[in-house]
Amino acid sequence: MKISERRAGNRTEVSASTEMSLMEHLDELRNRLFKVVVAYALCCGVAWYLYSHILAMLIEPLARLPVADQILQGGQLIYTAPTEAFVIRLKVTAFAGMVLALPVMMWQLWRFVTPGLHAHERKYALPFVIVSVVLFAAGVAVAFVSLPKALEVLAGFAGSELVLLPRAADYLSFVLILIAAFGFSFEFPIILLGLTLVGVLSSRKLRDARKIAWVVILILAAVITPTQDPITLMIMAIPLGLLYEGTVIAARLMKR
């Protein structure tokens, strides 16, 4: 038991807090990971059942291209190996399961770090989970908005003499990487706010680093986006920059 004293004027406040041992931390981590794995397995089961709907949603940006009739064979993608269909289903199911299990993952993460926070900081648990999910969903939405234009730009480099005939595995890998890049990059305000909560950053530091932050955002957007075209880059960079500005405001409202 660790006893800490804080003086406020002539009054001394004595608070008691339990200090967890290394084994208790490891046990807590194991319990949290177990819950995450169970939730992920259940969500993968749901994604396996909804596979056809998820696949149709992933193909939809390709179907919106002007030359979609030439690209898609009867509105469908092709695969060229007997085992490829099973691998594709596993890949799509694993990714969709992760997306569906994200709220549980973020909640378990917060619960794991909660013992190291003060009582007034623990009230941010529910907003933390909700904002994390909303930001990831916003990133996915932006990815779907940018996909048709990005595909059109990339296909345009080939000229009229060549026709895009993507294999299902190649196309879906491209789409899933793009979605993951947008979804997880939109989570960076949560990281910044977490650092402000523990005192590593402050709203003043974030304001002072504004110009550097915008440059870093542009560089990261150029590196993260697999299409490497300026349109997709700006579609990612501008929302990330606005999210950074929103993080500064949120840090000020939290008086950090």
Overall pLDDT level: 77
Distance between the termini: 29 Å
Radius of gyration, taken over Cα atoms and rounded to an integer in Å: 23 Å
Largest sheet: 2 strands, antiparallel
Strand order of the largest sheet: 1-2
Strand content: 5-15%
Overall outline? flat
Strand tally: 2
Share of residues in helices: over 70%
The unreliable regions are 1-18
Count up the helices. 10
Structural class: mainly alpha
Structure explained in plain terms:
This protein is mainly alpha-helical. The chain has a domain at 22-186. The protein contains ten helices and two strands, in the order ββαααααααααα. It has helices at residues 22-49, 51-63, 68-71, 84-113, 125-156, 168-185, 188-197, 203-208, 210-224, 230-253; strands spanning 2-8, 11-17. The chain has a two-stranded antiparallel sheet with strand order 1-2. Helix 1 runs antiparallel to helix 4 (84-113), helix 4 packs parallel to helix 6 (168-185) and helix 5 packs across helix 6. The two termini are 29 Å apart.
Summarize the structure.
This protein is mainly alpha-helical and 256 residues long. It has a domain at 22-186. It has ten helices and two strands.
